[in-house]
Amino acid sequence: MKISRRSLLLGGAAVGVVSFVPSAIGQVPAAFDTLPASAPTRNLTLTAREIDARLLGADGPLTRRVCAYDGELFKMFRFQRGTRLIVDFENALPDPTTVHWHGIRLPYLSDGVPPLTQDVVEPGGHFRYNVPLPDAGFYFIHPHCDETGQVGRGLAALLVVDDPAEAKAGYDAECFVVVKDWRLAPDGKWLDMTTDDGAANAGTFGTIRATNGKTTPPRVEAPAFGDVRVRALVADATRVIDLGCDSDDAFLIAVDGQALPPVSLNALPNGVWRMGSAMRADVQIRMPAPGEEVKIYDYRSDEPYLLTTLVAVDTGKRKTPVKPRPLPAPQVPLPDLKKAQKLEFLLQVSAGPTAVSPPLPADDPLSKALANSLCVGSTTHWAISRDSWSTREDLRLPPPLARMDHGASYIVSMTNVTKHVHPMHLHGHIFRVLSHSKKPKMPQYLADTVIVEPNETVEIAFKAVSGNWVFHCHILEHMDTGLMGWFKVA
Ligand code: C2O
Ligand code: CU
């Protein structure tokens, strides 16, 4: 058994397991698992590969080097809550990658974050992930290595976890809205996914907007007078949307896949739900009479941008008063707010040379692991409480933002002192959003990613689970240029 300095440094739960395929199976003590060992298991293969696709429309030019899981853009995986996936992942890309299961509470060695939880999977390499699915909801699968490039070129999949108890809510139809722009020249060639100006500001936007990969907004038929469950995901690396629709009969029923008591969209600020990169929202929409439509928009753009049109078709259903039916309550472990320890962080522009963590010696094995992780940009624009993530030129692993105890409760307060919004994501936990200083009326809800507006303080609370967990802005260029830290929970 070989124990590297890096494993010692990071305190991996177990290291150097001898097997052909590097694997996160069986390396985590049962106490840190999120499903019992007896949970039903499903074996799954997953391949990341490049494909050619006509992203600018069926008559448009061919784009090469589109990235997709199993060769399918935004492939959807769907399983019952309580299932454990054993995923044999193969990297058929020409570049290193990893798989991150955004929002899933899982043992940290399957979290897909190099170099904190695994090494990168080299081209042609394999990795076996242990992915328990303890919570119903809508999740997002993406790489955690060269994310700006790979997610930018399409590498993303959807993961829906169903709970049979949801059937009682009785939706008549379901509709997926995946927001992801393409950054393409008119000839169908990729443009640079990152620009220094974008990374230092709101991010580098795509040139072509798309829903579900298509540049023409989809039209989806749904039963007249029926209730549609719309599941929206912002898979874009940059864009922040204001999700809304032109109907008054629309209710936010889940955030990041976690049910909340239905809130009328009209009761939210500006009648919309603001969503940044990686955020999901479920909205129940009552369909109008046959032939009529409901249009779902992003109202944040200068002109409302049409994401999807729902078209009511006659199925003989009668009109009844709208009554949003709550989904079953989530069963996520909740923090004990009375005993919680409070930690405060600032989201800020980079402190530059005053960053607190020293560079690593070039011969440190961790230097190589960090350099390989490709989760690093060439420069630093952002910081969390004065420290920044590594850059390629200045390899450093910042010390953890906090050391936490497994099972203890924490309140993390984030204050954004920059001019830009930051959708902040904590890995491995579903947290309770306690307060938004700019949305005082918003009821508390569960989430894994939360927007912090400029000059806003947002408080989240969670019960910590053992592992090394990154905490970062999901505008991927912000993450690449410093807006990432980590918590060490032992
Ligand atoms: Cu979806 Cu570390 O992110
Ligand atoms: Cu950000």
Structural features, described:
GO terms for molecular function: copper ion binding; oxidoreductase activity. One of its GO terms (cellular component) is outer membrane-bounded periplasmic space. This is Putative metallo-oxidoreductase protein. The chain has 490 residues and is mainly beta. It folds into three domains: 5-162, Cupredoxins -  blue copper proteins (Immunoglobulin-like, Sandwich), CATH 2.60.40.420; 168-313, Cupredoxins -  blue copper proteins (Immunoglobulin-like), CATH 2.60.40; 341-489, Cupredoxins -  blue copper proteins (Immunoglobulin-like), CATH 2.60.40. Helix content is 6%, strand content 37%. The chain has helices at residues 5-10, 147-152, 196-200, 365-373, 476-480; strands at 41-53, 63-69, 76-80, 84-91, 100-102, 126-132, 137-142, 157-162, 173-179, 219-223, 227-234, 241-245, 250-255, 258-264, 273-275, 280-286, 293-298, 305-313, 341-349, 382-384, 402-404, 409-416, 422-426, 431-436, 445-447, 449-452, 457-463, 467-473, 484-489. A six-stranded mixed beta sheet has the order 20-19-22-27-24-25, with no helix packed on it. The chain has a five-stranded mixed beta sheet with strand order 9-11-16-13-14, with no helix packed on it. A five-stranded mixed beta sheet has the order 10-18-17-12-15, with no helix packed on it. It is globular. Mean pLDDT is 91; it is low at 1-19. The structure holds CU-O-CU linkage and copper (II) ion. CU-O-CU linkage binds next to strand 5 and strand 28.
